[in-house]
Design brief:
With about 400 residues, this protein is of the alpha/beta class. It contains 18 helices and 13 strands. The chain starts with 9 loop residues before the first strand and ends with a helix.
């Protein structure tokens, strides 16, 4: 099972926010011993973000389960020595330092590899470590804007819109995980460490891959289409009498079945709609014919009618409605975990890799709650540990 795949692997999570911590959590979900090293006094930046459940920030909880928290002030000599001991004993180190911070802390790739030549070091950034990118700080929403992703998100004629989920953070964390896995595989052969670099800007263009390649081929920039798709029509959200539903037709045969179900002979015989290219060019005219028809029935009616015709159709649900779907319960997506220092339990989202995790899963750690235990395991003596604990 995936839950034991990386048992015995030691991962140091020096990252904050979402992307780096997500990558570390994935390894924790698969059995690795993940040590989250947090700088004083507040730890990971997301610990302070609302909303909170009994004092625990839900953003932090979402990407920091299956970890132990060690609190160290890197500026203190004793803490720095302890950090280097942890680095020496680690297989993987993940960081997400803002521009210039790694140099100030002497935690660059060169310094980390001197401490542990066999470590796989992954650095997550917004724009990379090149001459230009290394000085450009950024968060998910900023990179969505700079990359052009916002330029075609939203409704035609409307303001540029941020994609609400942190898609660049989440996808960058996944790419970081894949890169680390590849580096570990290479290390199995060579015995040497490696340096993995992932950047939110790279993830943005990968998410836009077919829009970007389309632009290279045609010179035509993608447009804001609301819920619509650039390469297929009709493929969007439509309004019924009591709500909205998504209809996705991606072939001529599907369009023909749609027209037959709707008894829309005019659509079938109209040369403008005979091909997908034509339907894309004349999407507004086609929508003008379909929209009044769809407003005549309820969502449930259309789901039944269109579904029986073999068409892809689904209700536009609220989050609450989606969470109550039978298929969501069937997937077992939301295991419960106890919050640190509390009797309250919080449902988190399980790793999509696993249907059933074979290793026990632990909730997010309290800040610094494992400091003494981890440092003792690393071989520090009692005086060193006591000195560090007095600083916290």
């Amino acid at each position: 099972m995936f839950g034991n795949t990386y048992k015995g692997l030691r991962v140091l999570d020096l990252a904050t926010n979402i992307a780096g911590p997500l990558a570390a959590m994935i390894f924790g979900d698969m059995g690795a011993d993940v040590i989250k090293v947090e700088r004083s006094p507040y730890g990971d930046d997301t610990r302070l973000l609302p909303p909170k459940a009994d004092g625990t920030a839900t953003v932090f909880a979402s990407v920091n389960r299956n970890k132990r928290s060690v609190r160290l002030d890197y500026r203190d000599a004793t803490c720095r020595q302890a950090l280097e001991v942890l680095i020496k004993g680690a297989d993987v180190l993940i960081d997400s330092f803002p521009p210039g911070i790694a140099d100030k802390l002497d935690l660059t790739r060169a310094s980390i590899s001197r401490i542990n030549p066999s470590i796989v070091h992954c650095s997550v950034s917004a724009f990379g470590a090149g001459p230009t990118g290394k000085d450009m700080p950024g968060y998910d929403a900023l990179v969505q804007a700079v990359s052009g992703l916002m330029s075609f998100t939203g409704v035609a004629g409307g303001d540029s819109v941020r994609i609400a989920p942190s898609v660049l953070d989440i996808s960058t964390g996944m790419w970081a995980t894949i890169g680390i896995m590849a580096a570990l595989k290479r290390r199995d052969v060579s015995g040497a460490g490696d340096f993995v670099q992932t950047a939110l800007i790279d993830s943005a263009f990968m998410l836009m891959c077919h829009q970007v390649v389309g632009f290279f081929a045609t010179g035509e920039a993608p447009e804001k289409l609301g819920s619509g798709a650039p390469s297929a029509v009709p493929y969007r959200v439509y309004a019924a009498t009591d709500g909205e539903f998504m209809l996705a037709t991606a072939s001529n045969s599907q369009f023909e079945r749609l027209c037959n179900v709707l008894d829309c002979d005019n659509c079938l015989s109209d040369d403008r709609f005979a091909t997908m290219e034509g339907r894309i060019r004349h999407r507004q005219e086609l929508d003008a014919l379909l929209e009044p028809v769809f407003r005549e029935r309820t969502v449930d009616s259309w789901l039944a009618i269109l579904g029986q015709a073999g068409l892809s159709v689904g209700r536009v649900n609220s989050v609450s409605e989606a969470l109550d779907l039978p298929v969501v319960e069937e997937r077992g997506l939301f295991p419960q975990f106890r919050l640190p220092g509390s009797d309250q339990r919080l449902r988190l989202v399980r790793n999509p890799l696993d249907v059933k995790l074979s290793s026990p899963m632990q909730g997010p750690p309290a800040l610094g709650s494992h400091t003494a235990d981890v440092l003792e395991e690393a071989g520090l003596d009692r005086d060193q540990i006591d000195a560090i604990m007095r600083l916290l």
